[in-house]
Please model this.
Amino acid sequence: MRILSIIWISILFSVVSCTPEINFDEPQPAGDKNENTFRKKFQGIYFCKDDSSMLTIDENKIIQEWHLIIEVPKEELDTTEGVEIRDGKIYSKDIPEPLPFQMSGDTVIINWDFELTIFKISPDQILRYYNGFYFLNYKKPDNLWVIKVLSIDSKGLLTLNKLQGGSQQIEEIKQITHVDNVLDDEGKVVTHKIHPTRRELREILRSDMFVSGSEFKKIKLLNENNLNENKRM
Model:
């Protein structure tokens, strides 16, 4: 089941980074009102060519879905520690939920469908709009905020980016605004904190520092049935 572990970990690492993050001390843009819904222009179903995932934006949330077809030799399952097959499903500590499968000769065929809620408007996930960009503000346990920036062009290409961190970008941001290092009990830098003015935030945006994200192509508008179904979720 190592291949499943690799796939799952890869997806999680596309969402979570090990590099010390660049956080904000309040939702951005500071002082702007919170939005209750995504604009119609952004709502729809999108395709990511990098990993063939589907992204759905409805009125108040963003969900990313994957459909994977994985073929594993049955011998590998039979000899893998921590894997159990029962009731027509595969169980393993390395995957978040049991997987149904089919047999084709000596090969196990797994159809794996799963989804992650990327963002959902709430007190801890605040949405703000500025100059054509949506700012997705995520509140952390330490009361700092992680920011992602959502934008769409005239051709329906959607991008979801964030500040990637790392020493080079930190130095670039220091040229625009003050950066505080947040340390743990051992004096190790665990995150960076900034408090940009509106002018400084505009400069960060213009400098294309919000990067390291994914691109999605809109393939379908959300119809009324889609919206009703998503509201029930």
